[in-house]
Amino acid sequence: MVTMEKHILKYFLIFNLYCLFTFNVYSQDADSLNEESSRSIVINDNQETIYPGKPLLMSLVLPGAGQYYNKAPKWKTAFFFGTELISILSWNYFKNTAETYENDYRSFADQNWSLENWVYNRFNSVSPEWANVSALNSLIGTHDLNLVVSNDLANDLNITGTISSDSLESHPEWFYSGDVTEVRDRHFYENIGKYDQFVGGWADARNEWYKYDKILGDSTETVIKTPKKQKYIDDRYEANQMLNYAKYSITTLMFNHVISGIESVWFSQKKAKENLQEISHYKKINLVYDPMSPIGVGGINLLINF
Hints:
Blueprint: H1 2-22, H2 35-38, H3 53-61, H4 65-69, H5 74-112, H6 115-123, H7 128-131, E1 146-149, H8 151-157, E2 162-164, H9 167-170, H10 173-176, E3 180-182, H11 186-194, H12 205-208, E4 210-216, E5 219-225, H13 227-280, E6 282-289, E7 297-305
Antiparallel strand pairs: 1-2, 1-3, 4-5, 6-7
Helix pairs in contact: 1-13, 3-13, 5-13
């Protein structure tokens, strides 16, 4: 669970770096107007030039920063920055909640599932009905557990490392020697809640086990459970749900960066276009010089450019 979160964050960091170094920075320079018109235009040199590439990179790094640079409406800056903040807080909350659920269901399994119960219930049938369930009559199934063999048994068998729990079907005495323990890794915690062959390990298996038919489309599957196993499954489901919400938060975070960047470029282009339109739509009124006129004015010249 934690490893997957690290992968998501790693890809997110790579995505940001990729954007920073691969997006081209574009700048806009207004072309000179024709010679006649240029004499009638006064350009404000104090007007700040907005480059679309700069707000793009700013928004990719921190959503809302590009909108602030563009002097866009304040609500845009607040929206993108607020989405960023909420996404980060949500991811942190759901990740921590998922870890809490995971610790809880693992602790519950440690207290209520044991290899001793599993082996004992396999070779000491609970009831005739139990004996008729194939999944409960063998330690060998679709999955297995990793077992560590230590001390005298390891020396006698010349075993180093781990062995499969399938070995106990033929040699249950290995467990009773006291030199065999299960490895409680991620696969262990998944297997004991997911597969029927491990039901016998739960503390309430002998007295409260039950089965029911689960409809799968056109077929029916018989599922074996106990109340403790069901609680364990429910707790794992809650943990996975919290982890999914954390993933959704990361996805929102990534999209917020991209959309903020796109919007900042669009707004700066739109603003630049409006500025050029203001320059190209102008009026000019001046007097026409006439050397033959006593006052030197021969009329009025009106120029409208659009």
